[in-house]
Specification:
alpha+beta, TATA-Binding Protein, four-stranded antiparallel β-sheet, 45% helix, globular
Length: 116
């Protein structure tokens, strides 16, 4: 889990992508006496890329900034979940040029699950 999170944060930093928030769902659950498998949400983006998307489709702001969820299954396997760019483009009726900035989420997810 920590290796995957570290890889994500390194990729974002190397690409100059701003991390807006890191939400530790499992840590917050533990803080109130509940148990949740290790679960972290990282919210990230680039206002230069995202602003035109939201200008074209204001409701896209529900899905921006982009998000990646890193979570651990009961057997210890770690997963990365996110809404892929094609889903977001379809959801918000974006054309190829408008949707192009959203492809960053696919590339970032690929980079952290299959690092070079």
């Amino acid at each position: 889990m920590s290796e995957t999170l570290d890889r994500l944060l390194t990729v974002l930093d190397n690409k100059g992508i701003k991390v807006f928030a890191r939400i530790d769902h499992s840590g917050e659950a533990a803080r109130v006496g509940l148990t949740l498998r290790d679960t972290k949400l990282v919210i990230f983006g680039n206002p230069v890329a995202g602003t035109p998307v939201m200008d074209a489709a204001p409701v896209a702001a529900l899905d921006l900034p982009l998000k990646l969820l890193i979570w651990e299954r009961e057997d210890g396997r770690v997963f990365v979940s996110y809404n892929d760019a094609s889903y977001l483009a379809e959801r918000h009726g974006l054309g190829p040029d408008q949707a192009a900035p959203l492809a960053a989420v696919d590339a970032i997810a690929s980079a952290i699950v299959a690092p070079s």
